[in-house]
Sequence to fold (130 residues):
Amino acid sequence: MKASNLPFFVFVVTLNMISCNEKTAVQNPIDPSKATITQMPKELGQELFEGKGMCASCHKADIKVVGPSIQEIAKTYREKGASIAAFINEESGPLVDPSQYEIMKTNFAVTKAMSAEERKALEVYMMSFE
Ligand code: HEC
Fold:
């Protein structure tokens, strides 16, 4: 390569690097958020149920611990055509075990701070239990 071509060569290489960087900069916002965009409500619901919702500490799939089993709750809500999302936003009252409602109520601070989408995801997850 002739010495006089060097500045041009450097220019082209630099340009390439810049455009490559731009490309990753455009791709990056897509990749990390992919998880939330493509995450199904049921998966999100399970994540919330076992994670920040802390629901799993009182609700198990098929046995009563502190709270009724998820199966029992889903069965009652199916029979009555009721909405879990509404219940955990304090828009509707207890249908499963009203005598223990006060214990469940302590968790409304968590669920009412959630987005409507998150509450719906919890409903979808719980209603998937047969
Ligand atoms: C501290 C224990 C505790 C935690 C944590 C808890 N629950 Fe409960 N839950 C209860 C108890 C006790 C009941 C029974 C009282 C009742 O039916 O309201 C209940 C009942 C329910 C019911 C049935 C309500 C009805 O109509 O009677 C739903 C739905 C429910 N919980 C969802 C959740 C979800 C979702 C979470 C997490 C965001 C959660 N619970 C976290 C103790 C808890």
Q: What stands out?
A: Residues 7 and 121 are 57 Å apart (CA to CA).
